[in-house]
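Weekly puzzle thread! Below is a chain. First person to post its structure in token form gets bragging rights.
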Amino acid sequence: MDEALVFGPTFEALARALSLRLTPEATVQFKAMGVDFERLLPAYPFETWVKAMDLGSQLVMPNASEKERHLAMGRRMVDSYGESLVGKALLTAIRVIGPRRMLERMARNLRTANNYTETKVTAGADGSYELWCSKVASTAFYCGMLRRGVELAGGKSPTVESTAHDGSGATFLIRWT
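Winning reply:
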């Protein structure tokens, strides 16, 4: 596979998610890692995304644990990404197709943000879904993102938990009413 890249609009969504927290000092920190929100590149290496998302989460919730920060940032990113042109189309589609079909199309959904995500979804007999995603740096970020996505797709009271995580990816158990 070629280099894993996260697309510029995802970084644009990060800037929106940070809003007033993107102070001059924070801007300097992002520029030090190669992210200039005034002149975004078409894509960034996966490792840059991981660092930028973590720094953003620290700016949003400085006194929270890493897990709490990443969970909140995952939720914020879905809402912020939904304000972009591509994100608006994606959120409109998931509202129409519902949470089950959203999960079945998750690889396509996530590919609007990056070039590397692969997924596999399995329906459980109890109505739950198991979703495996490749190349997951933060399971908490994905839990927040998936939970918010299920909510926006019409799932009531969703729960998302990480059940496995290794070098190839992570597995999540997803339920809703």
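Puzzle host: Confirmed. Bonus trivia for everyone else. Helices lie at 8-18, 24-32, 46-60, 66-81, 85-104, 106-110, 139-152.
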